[in-house]
Amino acid sequence: MRITIKDKNNFILMFNEMFYDNTISQINGITIDSRKIEKNDLFIPIKGENYDGHDFIDDAIKKGALLCFSEKKSNIKNRKVIKVRLIQNLINQFASMWQKKSKAQVIGITGSNGKTTTKELLYSFLSKKYQCSKTKGNFNSLIGLPLTYLNSKTNDDFNILEYGASRPNEIDKLCKIVKPDYGLITNISESHIENYSSFNQLKKTKSALYMNLIDNNIAFINNEINYLADLKLNCKKITFGFDKTSDYKAHEIQKGNNKYIKVNNNLVSIPRSLYHLKENILSAYSIANHFKINHKDINDCLKYYIVPQGRGNKIKLGKLNIIDDSYNANPESVKLAINRFNTIKTSGKKIFILGDMLELGNNSNKNHIEIAKIIEKSKINIVITFGDISKNTTDSIKNKNIKTIHYYSDQLLDLKNQINKIATENDLIYLKGSRSMKLERVYK
Predict the structure, then answer these.
(1) Residue 389 φ then ψ, to 5°
(2) Cα-atom radius of gyration of the chain, to the nearest Å?
(3) Which pLDDT tens digit goes with each residue over 81-111?
(4) Which of 72, 121, 134, 212 could form a disulfide with 284 if both were Cys (CB 3.0 to 4.6 A apart)?
């Protein structure tokens, strides 16, 4: 991971306040990967399960690093190395001090599905009127979020940040590092649950985004998620949903071949390629409209909005028509993917390629079997699963009208050959699987 420092002068001032014995007069970026070092970068070594960034400090300096940090005394013989007690504390301190210097309001987004898509939509809406920054990619962890926050400018109006959590209490920790002024939880489902003792612990972790909001802060709440609407908060609330009680009340309208959602009295036109994102669009609309972005500007954004790669974008490759939704998968997002696939019209076969859903803990086999039940009732013609666990899905499909094939994770070439054999020009292929399954390799 590497981030560019955009607001160089203010970062230099902050850095020199923190390290008055090691002042700098220039800066390019910050990296935690020595392979991505550029001249005048700061190098922050991270300890991983299989590596220690401290081992690459000398390499970073040779490649042009301005300064490096180290928890180890053995590295500080070089004048370009600054000794710190804990690297994580250093990262936290950078972000906390940056927030004190920034006038920007922070909009925090978390949830099991849709964080990145909602962030990108909201960024495109708010940028019509305001100067905004956003989380780079999906760098939303205890390391990624505070570092990508430093990519913002102190005169931004808004910073839109993803708050991610793979373990208990991580959202609360992130809120203590970079405090949100506004919060949105897209949803909560059993993704990454293997590191949690229960679903309640997972809900508590995600809900911490709202619990850290106080006074005039605002929680934007999906009224259709009961356990979110029932939270006792110490801040203001604005609700949205496809119901009659929300502040932003929405319902679906179809005129000819065009689909819309009507939010209060405003008609929001959603292109066909984005209609599966209507809940994400409604949540982003609610926040943007609160900040006086008019619905005409929002409609203009939607007209030209491009779905991020791997999050449901359509690809034409030779005779193959592919929907690449392979960025990640959990039971809830796979159900949504199947529902979306059902609504898409095609004159050919519908081929659903499912990679393993990972990090589901003890419920993994059960979750994959449950997906089989949903597929059995769908309009899918062929199911191909890829990975050791997803065999539970193909083995559990009893509908004789659905052809099922399974490949293990070392048989990617066989899977690709199978697709070339069975897919015709009018067929539609849908890719869905956890990130580490890398299903985009099917066509790349």
Answers:
(1) -80, -35
(2) 23
(3) 999 999 999 999 999 999 999 999 999 999 8
(4) 121
Contact between 432 and 353 under an 8 Å Cβ cutoff? The reply is yes
| Sequence letter at residue 427 | D
CA separation for the pair 196, 209 (Å, rounded): 17
What is the arrangement of strands in the sheet containing 67-70, beginning at the earlier edge strand?
2-4, 29-31, 42-43, 67-70, 81-83
Tokens 């949803």 locate to: 187
DSSP string, 144-176: HHHHHHTTS-TT-SEEEEE---SSTTHHHHHHH
Q: Is the dihedral of CA 228, 231, 234, 237 positive or negative?
A: positive
Residues 6+ apart with CB under 8 A from 425: 319, 321, 348
Q: Quickly state the pLDDT bin for 271 (edges 50, 70, 90).
A: confident
Residue 285 is given by DSSP the state H
pLDDT at 74: 67
- Residue identified by tokens 């990508």 is 148
